[in-house]
């Protein structure tokens, strides 16, 4: 999370990073990504960027003035609540699960967010009604932690506002190594000297060098055909 405060501190620009599963990203994007981004930018006043790559997790970066940031969070939180409501129509569950968002926050700021003896995070929970959990471990290959927020959309919006205040009052210390989700590892199968990866119901030729390595190995290994015996050498 980065901040830029102009004269008088009235115009504060924030950059907030969210960690989402692919399904959640698909929900807020809809069918056409560029259309969504333009609509999102126009309505909320914030800019959104979604990390690329074939990853189970994606980083969603939202940048803009504080009011636009809160409006953007409201759009996302209410969309997730709508998805939960729709999923319950075909479910036997009786209790409605809360909306859950995961912020990605520099580890050096998490101490201020938790507060002495957990006082600050307790205050945020009690004043907003949202559940807030700060991960004990840093995300892989980074200096950031996940902060999970759960509750109603209104509780989440109020919670994000209070977290933003804490982050602005306590800027990150030192360099931050951002978390970058790793691509999903897909199984590779060999058939007829060709490597394939499974995508959905189809086998797609693998683009890397695995095929060449497999072919080379087949050429170098003297396999004996089934049903035949190794010829005896005289002497």
What does the model show?
- With about 240 residues, this protein is of the alpha+beta class.
- It has a domain at about 15-170: TATA-Binding Protein (2-Layer Sandwich).
- About 40% of the residues lie in helices and about 25% in strands.
- It has helices at about 20-30, 35-45, 65-90, 105-115, 120-130, 155-170, 210-220, and strands at about 1-5, 10-20, 45-50, 55-65, 100-105, 130-135, 145-150, 190, 195-200, 200-205.
- The strands form two sheets. Strands 1, 2, 3, 4, 5, 6 and 7 form a seven-stranded antiparallel sheet that branches.
- Strand 8 (about 190) and strand 9 form a beta hairpin.
- Helix 3 (about 65-90) packs antiparallel against helix 6 and helix 5 (about 120-130) runs antiparallel to helix 6 (about 155-170).
- The longest helix is centred in the N-terminal third of the chain and has 23 residues, at about 65-90.
- It is globular and about 65 Å long.
- InterPro entries: KH_dom (IPR004087), KH_dom_type_1 (IPR004088), KH_dom_type_1_sf (IPR036612).
- This is Poly(RC)-binding protein 3.
- It comes from Balearica regulorum gibbericeps (East African grey crowned-crane).
- Keywords: Repeat, RNA-binding.
- GO terms for molecular function: RNA binding.
